[in-house]
């Protein structure tokens, strides 16, 4: 069995493999088994799956490479992100209250004149410590979270789905390492990941605070059809009186759901 990431294959062959892999996933085959069938690394298949969920079938197609595109350095991206702190797409002339990776890529193309793929942008953000939220997985969960996931998450998902809403998992992150130099602002990120669809996020200047989380959730309600049930950590800055008051004033449109407390081992 071949154990590689497929980069030695030509673009058309890779396109066929991507479509075949996503067809198997939609038929119920788990991504690790898809990777084994194709002789590829699991990370490759999971990367294709993330791209497919964000951009649909178009994200799987091979793209012509007429020449090496100009590279975009992190410092160039970072300058734009610092200007965007506290602002959503609507404030800069685009649609929506919160960012997704494709929308942020469109803004970078507009402002810097350089094309960047969502997957590349994700890698740049993660290398800087700005890792976006992900749905709660199964691997390595503390016992309290594992029980919550097994016993309460299925019914929560079903009730939200029955009301035509969306279930999100919220997280926050900070730029690592903190930037050196006078006047350099440390970037923070608040993000929410649904089970399916694009992860939404907002950048902030400095450490993520309670008001940042509440402001993000207010925007999330505007960006969501139906109720937005948001799974949060039970500690600050996620659990605040400000967020509770915001949720109470939305008439059920915003529904915070707190994970059980986990005692550090």
TrEMBL record:
The protein, known as: Transposase
Pfam families the UniProt entry points to: HTH_32
Superkingdom as given in the UniProt entry: Bacteria
UniProt lineage: Bacteria, Bacillati, Actinomycetota, Actinomycetes, Streptosporangiales
């Amino acid at each position: 069995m071949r154990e590689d990431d497929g980069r030695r294959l030509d673009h058309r062959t890779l396109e066929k493999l991507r479509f075949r892999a996503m067809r198997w996933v939609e038929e119920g085959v788990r991504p690790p088994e898809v990777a084994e069938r194709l002789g590829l690394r699991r990370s490759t298949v999971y990367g294709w799956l993330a791209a497919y969920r964000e951009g649909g079938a178009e994200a799987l197609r091979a793209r012509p490479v007429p020449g090496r595109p100009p590279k975009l350095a992190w410092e160039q991206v970072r300058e734009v992100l610092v200007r965007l702190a506290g602002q959503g797409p609507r404030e800069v002339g685009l649609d929506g209250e919160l960012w997704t990776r494709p929308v942020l890529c469109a803004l970078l193309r507009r402002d810097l004149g350089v094309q960047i793929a969502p997957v590349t942008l994700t890698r740049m953000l993660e290398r800087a410590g700005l890792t976006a939220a992900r749905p709660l997985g199964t691997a390595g969960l503390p016992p309290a979270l594992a029980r919550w996931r097994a016993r309460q998450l299925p019914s929560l998902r079903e009730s939200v789905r029955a009301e035509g809403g969306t279930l999100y998992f919220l997280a926050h992150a900070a730029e690592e390492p903190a930037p050196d130099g006078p006047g350099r602002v440390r970037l923070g990120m608040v993000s929410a990941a649904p089970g399916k669809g694009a992860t939404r996020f907002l950048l902030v200047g400095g450490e993520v605070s309670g008001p940042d989380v509440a402001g993000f959730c207010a925007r999330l309600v505007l960006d969501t059809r139906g109720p937005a049930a948001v799974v949060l950590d039970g500690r600050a800055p996620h659990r605040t009186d400000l967020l509770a008051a915001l949720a109470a004033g939305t008439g059920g449109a915003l529904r915070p759901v707190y994970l059980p407390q986990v005692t550090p081992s």
